[in-house]
Amino acid sequence: MNRLRQTLAVLTAAALMMTGLAACSSDSSSTTAATTTTAAVTTATAASETTGSETAGTSAAESESKTSSISDDTVAALKTGLAVDTSLSSSADATDEADGLAQADSSVVAVLVDAEGKIAAISIDAAQTKVTFDKTGKITSDVKAELKTKKELGADYGINWDEQVQALEDYCVGKTIAEIKGISLNADGAADGVDALSTVTISISGIINTVEEAINNAQDLGASTGDSLKLAVVTTTASSVSVGEDSDAPEQGTAEIDSTYAAVSLDDQDVITSAVLDASKAPVQFDATGTLVTDTTQAVKSKNILGTDYGMSAQATKGEWDVQARAFADYIVGKTPAEAAGLAVAEDGTAADADLLSSVTIHIGDFLSALKKLA
Known about the structure:
The chain is α+β, with helices and mostly antiparallel strands. It has helices at 2-72, 150-153, 161-172, 177-181, 205-217, 303-306, 321-332, 337-341, 354-357, 365-374, and strands at 77-87, 100-113, 119-133, 219-224, 228-236, 253-266, 272-286. Among the domains are: 29-60; 77-299, no CATH class. The protein has ten helices and seven strands.
């Protein structure tokens, strides 16, 4: 009996011990699970923080990229250039069958060029001016008639020259002169094998030469990215005289073709930010038999290109013609074309404004006429 009680006591103690061990094991598992859960939460929180940090970093990078993109699109200076090429080679003597012809063909190009030499804006035009005379040296055309450029004539020129030049202008924007000179040309000087110029059938070889000159002439004059570009040409033959009408040279007649050129850049308020002015004088002389006296194979240089060779500085107190033209161009910066065209003129043809007259004493009427076209 006692042995049985001892056995029961041992079993009871063992059972209690097993219960205690089970409880401890349960507590340990709970603690382990809690620790694991805490670690998981901590890991998840860390992952969340890391992801958040990386996301924030990505957003910052994207923001910086956008900011950089915006800052890269800042206003930059552009150079303004103008060039004129004039030929008299189509002029001809009078014959029994036809009147003589004094013809000036001028190619005119204005450009805005960026720091990499790429064209930001371009305007191309041309003036074909004709004066006729008979075998007695008498002028037979109306020298007082209004003269228009090929762009101004539009369809009245006879072909769609203006539309073809517009296509060439569009092609040139964003390109360097090297790329433009790389255009393949056929035997007639027209573009060959360039899809973007498939509608351009006129000869463009001479125009490309003038584009190159305009780029070479370009200077920092105040234009900047976003500015637009305008070009105007004014031509007159009103100073032409028949044989016997010029007392200084009565034995000769002269078809005088005078042109003035104005190129301006404009901001979004239509205010002039830069300007270039030039002019050319192309006198074609003939005798009393209607025979040309002038060597029409020689190119006609503009007054800016002639510089001191124009020969006015000896009489001018404010410098050569090109110097005064530059001073006038600087003076109109900050004005609209309409304001510039409305400058007062004195009776002698000079500027009525004292400030302008202090640096420009040449006649300004032709400048104003050109600017009026841009207003």
